[in-house]
Amino acid sequence: MKYYIQFILMCIMLIIASVVDAKSKGAYPASTAELTFNSYNKRMSGFVYIAEGKGPHPTVLLLHGYPGNEKNLDVAQVLRQKGWNVAFFHYRGAWGSEGDFSFRHAEQDVQVVLQYLSQDGHAENLRIDKELISTVGHSMGGHMAIAGILDNQLVKCSVAWDGANLGANGVGFVNDPDTKIPWQAYGDTLFMLNGWSGTKAKEETQKYAKELDLIRRAKQINGRAVMLVGANTSVIPYELHIAPLLAALKETKDSKISFKLIDDDHSFNSTRAELIETTVNFLNNNCNANE
Fold first, then answer.
1. Which domains can be identified in the chain, with CATH numbers?
2. How far apart (Å, rounded) are the C-alpha atoms in residues 139 and 71?
3. Most buried residue, 26, 73, 91, 98, by most Cβ within 10 Å?
4. pTM of the predicted model as reported, rounded to 2 decimal places
5. Sequential pLDDT tens for the chain (291 residues)
């Protein structure tokens, strides 16, 4: 009888604990939705970190670089704590997503995911504010973030962390004679990018440099806010990639363009807190109607 009573008491305590836990999380807890995006009949893996609360929430599409070893998910987690949803995915041909990787494919994939996030049913299920979708990217993902806003007038604003301009100077970053990075040789090591090689990197950036050049699209910004964050390295040379794009964006009508230099390496390994604070402040001040 004694053990039976102890068992009953233990069950009651567990029930009470579960009820308290459910109440503490609320009716709309923070969560993660694993998603498959379909881009040109190829499946891409992705997910959305969904912020706590009924929403709808301002949402960031977070874009990884080349090849995407650094995914910056620490920034994503902080953004979610601050009330932002964060969507993340792997481009076609990258890290198990179907298809062949290419820079032009990646630009297309960004638009596919932006369209998915802004569709009524998906936005409702994921608690997304369709009027407050922004792009944030690192390195090659910085290019994709800026291309994302320039090619889509529904995107609220954009942040590029040491972002590349893949068509820089009309020759493409792989073919730039002043580059100190052996990009073609590096491309041959990227086994996580399906159908890719250093030769393909050279050929695509050479053939499609003008198409990839962000400066040629700068006027499409139409007064929306952009922040470029530079790092003090030669991986993405400021004079080739960032300065010309910064100038072109600032010359546009009603420009809302800002720049910050963070004295660190290309991945901001020693200044994560500064990178996060800079990003959160910019997004809340320019891209969040609730602030």
1. 29-286 (3.40.50.1820)
2. 11
3. 91
4. 0.90
5. 555 555 454 544 444 444 444 444 689 999 999 999 999 999 999 999 999 999 999 999 999 999 999 999 999 999 999 999 999 999 999 999 999 999 999 999 999 999 999 999 999 999 999 999 999 999 999 999 999 999 999 999 999 999 999 999 887 888 777 777 899 999 999 999 999 999 999 999 999 999 999 999 999 999 999 999 999 998 999 999 999 999 999 999 999 999 999 999 999 999 999 999 999 999 999 998 765
